[in-house]
Amino acid sequence: MLLQGKVALITGAASARGIGRATAATFAAQGARVIILDLDESAARDAAASLGDGHLGLAANVADEGQAQQAVARVIEHFGRLDVLVNNAGITQPLKTLDIRGGDYDKVLDVSLRGTLLMSQAAIPHMREQKSGSIVCMSSVSAQRGGGIFGGPHYSAAKAGVLGLAKAMARELGPDQVRVNSIAPGLIHTDITGGLLQDERRHAIIEGIPLGRLGSAQDVANAALFLASDLSSYLTGITLDVNGGMLIH
Ligand SMILES: NC(=O)c1ccc[n+]([C@@H]2O[C@H](COP(=O)([O-])OP(=O)(O)OC[C@H]3O[C@@H](n4cnc5c(N)ncnc54)[C@H](O)[C@@H]3O)[C@@H](O)[C@H]2O)c1
């Protein structure tokens, strides 16, 4: 059991076919007590209950400082510690540059980038005090290759911002034995991508993937497990590509 005795909070983890939910189930199977945080309270509670006993579902908007602080306070009250934070919540919009309005920009950057900062700010004091912790941030291949598959340029910018934020936090928090790493998934088959990709487009994309398939949520969950656990004890500030070879750099 790679996460026995660990307490792990995963944001955006209520979505049934999502990366966050697969990560939650993988962590629970490895002995972690998991907190599923998402916008809707009953969805978060149901998702937590689906993992078995001893897990917690919490409602919070990661882009709201008060709600982020309150959610982590509830975790500490309930479990007494926090070992792993997975900043997974994110939204995308398939817009072209000239179509991005201020409200679109705010929505997309607020969830991925501000949300990653606010949730990390809430978690870090506890991890610092424990002198241990692992923060995993969900970026995207879109940040590295300049989008072009799914999200608009503001999504690429948000996810590139996540990489910079994670690297800078890694440098700052290393002396406290708090590790911060990112995952850059390629095209993963979830609700974000599910209904929206026509068959023809899907085939064209798969032709450009050396491993010959879209990724699964489990592929990303396995990478998150590695970064959350002590298997990656000497890794901080890295970006782990989970993209089937779609981008090799
Ligand atoms: N699916 C892909 O191909 C892909 C590729 C690269 C990166 N990603 C990233 O992986 C992460 C998970 O994506 P997914 O495909 O599982 O998406 P998903 O839509 O299945 O899950 C996202 C979850 O985030 C929650 N959420 C949205 N805004 C929130 C907020 N303000 N506060 C709290 N929760 C919020 C949603 O309710 C949802 O449950 C996202 O950050 C996404 O950008 C996905």
Layout: helices, strands, pairs:
Blueprint: E1 7-11, H1 19-29, E2 33-38, H2 41-49, E3 56-59, H3 65-79, E4 84-87, H4 102-130, E5 133-138, H5 141-145, H6 153-173, E6 178-185, H7 199-207, H8 217-228, E7 239-242
Parallel strand pairs: 1-2, 1-4, 2-3, 4-5, 5-6, 6-7
Helix pairs in contact: 1-8, 3-4, 4-6
The chain binds nicotinamide-adenine-dinucleotide (NAD).
Nicotinamide-adenine-dinucleotide binds next to helix 1 and helix 4.
Describe this protein's structure.
- Helix content is 45%, strand content 15%.
- The protein starts with 6 loop residues before the first strand and ends in a 7-residue tail after the last strand.
- Helix 3 (65-79) packs parallel to helix 4 and helix 4 (102-130) packs parallel to helix 6.
- The protein has 249 residues and is α/β, with parallel strands linked by helices.
- It is globular and about 50 Å long.
- The protein has eight helices and seven strands.
- The chain binds nicotinamide-adenine-dinucleotide.
- Nicotinamide-adenine-dinucleotide is lined by residues 11-12, 14-15, 18-20, 38-39, 61-63, 88-92, 111-112, 115, 138, 140, 185, 187-188, 190-193.
The secondary structure category is: alpha/beta
CATH architecture: 3-Layer(aba) Sandwich
Structural domain tally: 1
General shape: globular
Find the count of extended strands (DSSP E, 2+ residues).
Answer: 7
Order of helices and strands: EHEHEHEHEHHEHHE
* Name of the level-1 CATH class: Alpha Beta
CATH topology: Rossmann fold
What separation lies between the terminal Cα atoms?
33 Å
Largest sheet: 7 strands, parallel
Radius of gyration: 17 Å
The CATH homologous superfamily corresponds to NAD(P)-binding Rossmann-like Domain
Which strands sit side by side, in order, in the main sheet?
Answer: 3-2-1-4-5-6-7
What is the tally of helical segments? 8
Strand content: 5-15%
- Poorly predicted spans: none
